[in-house]
Design a protein that fits this description.
About 25% of the residues lie in helices and about 35% in strands. It is α+β, with helices and mostly antiparallel strands and about 250 residues long. The strands form three sheets. It has a six-stranded antiparallel sheet, with no helix packed on it. The protein has a four-stranded mixed sheet with strand order 10-1-14-13, covered by helices on one side. The protein has a four-stranded mixed sheet with strand order 3-8-7-6, with no helix packed on it.
């Protein structure tokens, strides 16, 4: 009959012992994983975090492009252009296109009486001017705001076209003073709006944006009309003035 001691001895041999080789296998696997991680880190930095060399390069390129765009925008903001219109018939007006009604014309001097002319196909041109002082309302920007309405009549049965309307007494070209906004409306709607910018035989239009094209109308004193266009690329740097551009057009 087996004794209690022999039973315990047999139970000890029945329990499987962990082999020492199992520990070496685990250690080897961990070493291989560590080596693989180091290899990936050396050859593909940021692979595990997602910030790979390609990703970093893309981010740097995007940042450089954003900075360049901001610099160009600031340069355009600081830059001013001038347009010299020559060979204008004596007595003719030189007008700058400001848009189609209804349109806001900002940055106009408050202390000036500025002349605007509306034109539309099938209608005789009509002239109006802003008041000597822009009063009455204040725009969202906190600056003076005034509305000018232009009523156009249908063209008459004239073979040579409608005569150009004479300017209103007291109208100015340019002017000085704090800036305000003129809101222009027309009947019919969407008439082209032009602002008096000079008189013949030569007119210099200043304070124009550097990055935009310009439309100019030479008109009067009777039925004469000539439309001129200056593209943004036509404005070249003035000698010694990096923030100034200049272009010339001939009305001949």
């Amino acid at each position: 009959m087996p004794t209690q001691q022999s039973i315990a001895h047999k139970a000890e041999w029945a329990t499987p012992r962990k082999r020492r080789t199992d520990y070496w296998i685990v250690i080897a696997v961990l070493v291989l994983l560590a080596g693989a991680s180091v290899t990936v880190w050396l050859f593909k930095p940021g692979f595990l975090s997602g910030r790979t060399a390609e990703k970093v390069s893309e981010e740097r390129a995007a940042n450089a492009a954003a900075k360049q765009k901001a610099a160009l925008a600031q340069q355009a903001l600081n830059c001013h252009a001038a347009l010299d219109v020559t060979d204008v018939p004596v007595g003719a007006e030189v007008l700058l296109r400001v848009g189609q009604a209804p349109v806001d014309v900002p940055h106009l001097p408050v202390g000036a009486r500025l002349e605007f002319v509306a034109t539309a196909e099938g209608f005789a041109p009509n002239v109006s001017s802003s008041p000597a002082e822009l009063r009455g309302t204040t725009g969202p920007d906190g600056k003076p705001r005034f509305e000018v309405a232009l009523q156009l009549d249908h063209s008459g049965p004239k073979a040579k076209g409608d005569p150009w309307p004479p300017g209103e007494a007291g109208s100015e070209v340019g002017g000085k003073g704090a800036p305000g906004t003129v809101h222009l409306v027309s009947t019919p709607r969407a008439a082209e709006i032009w602002m008096l910018a000079g008189l013949g035989p030569e007119a210099l239009i200043e304070q124009l944006p550097c990055d935009q094209s310009v439309e100019v109308l030479v008109a009067g004193p009777t039925t004469f009309r000539k439309r001129l266009h200056a593209a943004a690329t036509d404005f070249v740097v003035r000698p010694g003035e990096l923030s100034a551009r200049m272009a010339k057009l001939s009305a001949r």
